[in-house]
Design brief:
The protein is mostly helical. It has 35 helices and no strands.
């Protein structure tokens, strides 16, 4: 009997051994699978995604009954954007066999995939099933709330998050969603708490060296987070109300800074500003909120053009509350006009759009069209910012379109004032008027601007004014303006330029000793910084002083240098006249022949033509053609602009012909007390 029992026990052990062995093998495989999962999770934490995916796959293949590797494998694929493959893996999971939390997690992942693929309805269904499977899944609740907000069901969104006083403990992706939702629902108190939590999570995130910069600390502060996200999160009537208040505030500051204008200017500014913001918000809301459902969302991605435009536009609008009052530091006549104050925001808005589109990754064709459109809008807006047209004018001048964006002659002659921008444009154009011999317009422009603004602001225009007065031979007013110029610009870099014009005027009056004293008193370092025309003018004055002292050789050298350096046609013409008369007195016909060749490169208005005729008359007189010389000299004196030098030469020829009374009549057309007038008086009286 005992033998039979022992035999049965042996047979039973033999029968149970395979089952025990199999159970031990499964435990080993499960343990191995779990170890591989742990290894994969560590690789994922290190950012080694490829290794993590391979380890999760190996863990699942090692023990297929362990569903955890499959779910984590799918989660990693969702993280790296491989949504199709992740969806295939997650569908292999027997969801009904999972606990409630596991079921909720799988549905949550399916919702993330649907949201990433742009299927908002499928995402809503998946998040709803996730929350239904496990009501305590706060992540699913937050994402379902955002999906409902995207679908326009704000009441359902509010209902889902009503029990939350704050969102402490949530990760950063969910906190971003919470902040946008609270801003949409105008729940600003909870939004501020969310910003504080986001700041806490961001604390310590620094640059490449691991140390947060000052800017990082500022941008990571709760007020900064709230303020930067405000234009992105506000919606509907609250957004209209807020931005209308911002633009109305800017209107209030502008009205305190500028003279009264039509009320519709203010209305247009507010309406256009709010409309631009509302259109931008409507265009980006759905895409931005869908993107926020992705864990790796970053607003720094260059694809987000409109959201960054909104942030920039908001920052510019707030910054203008500090910029507008700063214009009070300027004299009242130099402050921008009201439309220029309003134009600042629109220029920044369109220019920022241009920059962001340039940096974006959109298609080449679409990008070019958008760049052209925003560049054109920026160009239009630049006409309505302080000194904007001045910058456009300078740029267009470089391209050969000098009159573009400038004030017309008709507008200049109106009785109204000239804006500061137009004044700076006209100052830049003043020397072009001198170059064209439009002295009357240059003088009119200078009188209008210098009489309205602080003259110290327009040194270039003032110098052109003085030069035009001397060229027109208005010696009295020229002397007055030079004296005032020297007084205003005392101890400045422009003072020596005023002294140079003083020496020029003295040489015209025949005070060569005074002119020479002024020129020799100029500091060497300032002479080196003179413009080419200022250098030419100083050489011309020195040459005239040399001629008065009988130093003909040095005078000829200085005149030749002046001719080579000068850019202004009038200075070149005056230097040529002096050289021609000197060569005539030296009886150098060959030199006069060379001067005649240079006349072809000299062009200009009445005064230049008169000087050319004077030179031709000198050459004719040198050749013994007295009749031609008289005829050319008479023609030189027939211009509309007074030309004492031409009259002096014509009078000299008349005296040589014995027509003293006719020569004396020329004195009425010459500048009183000028060197040329005194020379003709001396010649007439000595002959009589």
């Amino acid at each position: 009997m005992l033998k039979k029992v022992a035999l049965l026990l042996c047979l039973l052990c033999i029968a149970l051994f395979p089952a025990v062995q199999a159970s031990e093998d499964e435990a080993v495989l499960l343990r191995k699978s779990q170890l591989l999962v742990q290894k994969a999770q560590r690789a994922e934490q290190r950012g080694e995604i490829e290794d993590a995916v391979a380890l999760f796959e190996e863990a699942y293949n090692t023990y297929p009954k362990n569903i955890m590797p499959l779910m984590l494998w799918g989660k990693v694929l969702v993280k790296v954007g491989m949504y199709e493959r992740a969806s295939e893996l997650l569908r292999q999971i027997p969801i009904q066999k999972l606990p409630a939390a596991g079921q909720s997690e799988v549905h949550l992942l399916m919702g993330k995939i649907a949201a990433a693929q742009g299927s908002i309805e499928d995402a809503a269904s998946a998040y709803s099933q996730s929350l239904k499977a496990f009501d305590k899944n706060s992540v699913a609740r937050m994402r379902l709330a955002m999906v409902n907000q995207i679908l326009g069901m704000s009441s359902r969104t509010d209902e889902l998050l009503r029990d939350f006083d704050s969102f402490v403990g949530f990760d950063l992706p969910e906190l971003r969603l919470a902040l946008m939702i609270d801003l949409q629902l105008a729940n600003f108190g909870r939004a501020l708490h969310t910003c504080a939590e986001m700041s806490r999570l961001r604390d310590g995130i620094g640059d490449e060296y691991g140390k947060p910069s000052l800017l990082d600390n500022i941008l990571s502060s709760p007020p900064a987070i709230f303020f930067l996200n405000l234009p992105l999160g506000l919606g509907g009537g609250m957004s209209v109300f807020y931005f209308a208040a911002v633009f109305l505030g800017l209107c209030f500051f502008a009205t305190r800074l500028t003279p009264p204008t039509a009320i519709w200017h203010n209305v247009v500014f507010v309406v256009l500003g709010v409309t631009a913001i509302m259109v931008a918000q409507s265009a980006m809301k759905r895409e931005l909120f869908l993107a926020l459902l992705q864990d790796d969302f970053s607003l720094n991605d260059s694809i987000w053009i409109i959201p960054r435009m909104l942030i920039s536009g908001h920052l510019v609008a707030i910054a203008l509350f500090a910029v507008y009052p700063s214009f009070r530091l300027l004299p009242e006549d130099q402050r921008p006009k009201r439309y220029e104050l309003y134009g600042i925001w629109f220029f920044c808005w369109f220019f920022m759009a241009f920059v962001l589109i340039f940096q974006s990754r959109i298609g080449f064709g679409s990008r070019m069209l958008l760049l052209l459109a925003t560049f054109a809008m920026s160009g239009i807006a630049s006409f309505f910012v302080p000194l904007g047209r001045f910058v456009v004018f300078r740029l267009s001048s470089l391209l050969g379109y000098g009159d573009f964006a400038s004030l017309s002659k008709h507008d200049l002659r109106k009785n109204g004032g000239v804006s500061f921008t137009d004044a700076k444009i006209l100052e830049t154009k003043s020397w072009k008027l001198i170059d064209k011999e439009e002295y009357e317009e240059a003088i009119m422009t200078a009188r209008k601007i210098l009489g309205s603004y602080d003259r110290k602001t327009f040194p270039l225009l003032w110098k052109a004014y003085i030069f035009a007065l001397i060229a027109r031979e208005d010696m009295v007013e020229a002397q007055q303006q030079i004296s005032e110029f020297l007084e205003v610009f005392k101890n400045t870099s422009s003072f020596e330029s005023g002294q140079l014009y003083e020496a020029f005027l003295k040489s015209r009056k025949g005070d060569f000793g005074g002119a020479l004293k002024v020129i020799r008193g100029l500091p060497e370092h300032r002479i080196k910084s003179f413009t080419p025309d200022e250098n030419a003018l100083s050489l011309l004055v020195l040459a005239r002083c040399g001629l008065a002292c009988g130093d003909n050789v040095q005078a000829h050298i200085d005149l030749s240098k002046s001719l080579n350096v000068a850019k202004l046609p009038l200075l070149r013409a005056e230097a040529l006249v002096e050289i021609a008369e000197l060569d005539f007195n030296l009886k150098s016909k060959d030199a006069l022949g060379k001067i005649k060749e240079k006349l072809t490169g000299l062009s200009g208005g009445d005064k230049i033509s008169a000087y050319k005729n004077v030179i031709l008359s000198i050459i004719a007189q040198s050749d013994g053609r007295s009749a031609d010389a008289l005829q050319l000299a008479e023609k030189a004196c027939s211009g509309k602009i007074n030309n004492s030098r031409a009259c002096a030469w014509y009078g000299h020829l008349l005296c040589l012909s014995g027509e003293f009374s006719k020569a004396e009549e020329l004195l009425g057309r010459m500048a009183p007390d000028s060197h040329d007038a005194n020379r003709l008086i001396s010649e007439v009286t000595s002959a009589s």
